[in-house]
Specification:
By secondary structure, this protein is an all-alpha fold. It is built from one helix and no strands.
């Protein structure tokens, strides 16, 4: 059996050209773990957590 012919991946090709023109994409900011983030809904005082 002969090896398969490679398909043209247009998306990959476009990204490659964009990297040449613009440069590398900046690194993403890390997401903080859930315990360190502030709570979205603050419970009123006197209400216990259960």
């Amino acid at each position: 059996m002969a090896p398969r012919k490679k398909k043209l991946d247009r998306g990959k090709l476009v990204r490659e050209i964009a990297r040449e023109r613009i440069g590398a994409v900046p690194a993403a900011r890390p997401i903080e773990p859930g315990k360190k983030r502030r709570p979205k809904h603050i419970k009123p005082p006197g209400e216990d957590e259960t």
